[in-house]
């Protein structure tokens, strides 16, 4: 969730980002560092206003616009937050983000007078009349750094929860003659996550948004509600995505490619006009170039299939290169792991690998070579050579008939 918020802050061009955490939240601090943000600990949880004040020290000397975001609101968009800062420095000193709630219970209410925000009242402190309004505070606001921190030093904790509320700075700002504006957004975008159920709701909303974005950009989703995407999934126009496809992090699908039903992709790139699936798995490092075919029950990991290569059935291709226009027969595997280390299989262009072949890495198969079906290949194969690595077939005429007779006799003896 935090990564979504940090990504939006980065997209907005934030010069500095500070993440306020609870004690012991080491994983959160590590994630913040990975995004170039500074983490600081709020040793005592004394309210939202106090949490923002904790960030004052690392921002000492900064006098630009400050935006306060919540780490549990992963659906916020760059467009909405841009509106939050649009009026600052002109005729607005503070800008607060609100929404019209279908069920406002539990939210802070935004009190308006002559189209101007005059105060925000927490639900537990609100009167019956104040609770009747459906205009709710989303928790995010913006203003000059010096103004926000100065106002926060003037608030107290005389309220139902004995906490220092961030919301109290609005009324204090009005007393000082400052102008406070409301920016309204969509309730779905403001969804905060405080439980597993709310996390599922946020995920559902995110998926619906991403699917719509892709379809509006020219991607065909044959059963949109069954397709699961990551935040960084890239699918170019004219691609076709079948039902029940899962995109893990780091996937790019180029123009005109087709991902058929029940595929799982992660850390993979699919080239123009390529066909994947059904029931295929592309793991991290899989790169399919233009017009590659990867079929049912084929797994590709850390391997590049060059233009026009095919692996249509029941194969494992790991730590490998498959050259242009090569064909990998059904049941072929690259034996890339010896129990300690990974090894590479290099398959040249226009190679034909027969069904049920085992390629024991490290091994190289030259351009234009043939590998006979059922072979175990442990040595390099020269270009245009035919390699056979299997036991010689032995046929014993009549032996099947005698075996049947022997088996029948055994059954009779055993009753």
SS content category: alpha/beta
Number of strands: 32
Percent of residues in β-strands: 25-35%
Measured as a percent range, the helix fraction is: 10-25%
- Give the CA-based shape: elongated
How large, in whole angstroms, is the Cα Rg? 31 Å
**What count of helical segments does DSSP give?**
9
Low-confidence segments:
none
Mean of pLDDT: 95
Tell me about the biggest sheet? 11 strands, parallel
How far from one another are the termini?
69 Å
Describe the structure.
With 415 residues, this protein is of the alpha/beta class. 22% of the residues lie in helices and 27% in strands. The chain contains 9 helices and 32 strands. The strands form 6 sheets. Strands 10, 12, 13, 15, 16, 18, 19, 21, 23, 26 and 29 form an 11-stranded parallel beta sheet that branches. It starts with a helix and ends with a helix. The relative contact order is 0.07. The model has no long low-confidence stretch (mean pLDDT 95).
Give a short summary of the structure.
With 415 residues, the chain is α/β, with parallel strands linked by helices. Helix content is 22%, strand content 27%.
